[in-house]
Design goal:
Number of helices: 5
Distance between the termini: 32 Å
Number of strands: 2
Strand order of the largest sheet: 1-2
Largest sheet: 2 strands, antiparallel
């Protein structure tokens, strides 16, 4: 239990560091930490509820975000809570998670990501959207 909590804190720290680096002008480090956060989320989201971190039971069909197809939820209530009420709501991260899922899938299938500038644009859009939160 304790190890799971430490992993969650470490994952969240990557997102916080990404924001700090970005707003201090170091985009390279910001992108690196955002990529680490997104990689951890991709591994975690199919196994646990995005809201409460409860493990999804084997054989059960979790609710999933239709947009990014990454985030899983143990119920409709948690899906709505995460979308609306968190400071860093899923609404803000959803486009980035979806883009990153497609990027990783392309790399896994042997297709190199030809346009790194697209990652930069998606990441910049994300950081621009949180600047006003």
């Amino acid at each position: 239990m304790h190890a799971q909590r430490v992993d969650a804190v470490t994952t969240d720290m990557h997102l916080i560091r990404a924001q700090l680096f970005y707003f201090n002008g170091d985009k390279h480090q910001a992108y690196r930490h955002l990529e680490l956060y997104l990689d951890a989320r991709l591994l975690d989201c199919k196994l646990k509820c995005y809201t409460c971190d409860q493990r999804i039971r084997t054989g059960s069909v979790p609710f999933s975000c239709a947009c990014c197809r990454v985030a899983s939820y143990c119920g409709r209530r948690h899906q709505k809570l995460t979308w609306k009420n968190e400071r860093m709501s899923h609404k803000v991260l959803c486009p980035v998670l979806g883009h990153w899922r497609k990027t990783k899938k392309g790399r896994k299938n042997g297709r190199a990501n030809e346009d790194e500038r697209k990652n930069d644009r998606v990441f910049d859009t994300y950081f621009g959207s949180i600047a006003f939160l």
